[in-house]
Write a structure and sequence with these properties.
Residues 123-150 are annotated as: Disordered. By secondary structure, the chain is mostly helical. Helices cover 39% and strands 5% of the residues. The protein has a single domain, classed as Roll (Ubiquitin Conjugating Enzyme), CATH 3.10.110. It is globular and about 45 Å long.
Length: 150
């Protein structure tokens, strides 16, 4: 099972967190199924300008395996997670197949969902410059410097 995330960085980054949401519908206690919004403290009140994209993705991955059911965005998923792991897995796979049109075999679903329903995979930048740019503070040029640029 593969899920896509969207990360949007404001001009205030890294002093403000990026907006992170699932582009693929995701059935999970801390994910709003309709919007893809993620309830994760480091993307809100616990944000630090030292966090990198890697930190964000690792935190999302950790949340997926260990949801915070004290403040769920999806109460149904939280209830199932706590009460009936087999039913949670069944619903999770069913919702994934419905959202993506991709069939998940029973063996693959059981392996994928030994603990969490989801696995996050990040595609690394193609070169070091792209990675550096993702971590850099946005550079602001003066209007005159921008006008002189070729």
């Amino acid at each position: 099972m593969r899920f896509q995330l969207t990360l949007r960085f404001s001009t205030d980054y890294p002093y403000a967190p990026p907006q992170v949401q699932f582009a693929t519908r995701c059935f999970h206690p801390n994910v709003d199924y309709a919007s893809g919004a993620i309830c994760l403290d480091i993307l809100k009140e616990q944000w630090s300008s030292t966090y990198t994209v890697r930190t964000i993705l690792l935190s999302v991955q950790s949340l997926l395996g260990e949801p915070n059911n004290d403040s769920p965005l999806n109460g149904h998923a939280a209830s199932l997670w706590d009460a009936d792991a087999d039913e949670y897995r069944r619903v999770c796979v069913s919702k994934y197949e419905e959202a993506t049109g991709e069939k998940v075999g029973a063996a693959a679903a059981a392996t994928t969902m030994a603990a969490p329903c989801l696995k996050v995979e990040a595609t690394p930048p193609t070169d070091a410059a792209a990675d550096d740019a993702a971590h850099a503070t946005p550079r602001r040029e003066s209007p005159t410097a921008a006008a002189r640029a070729p």
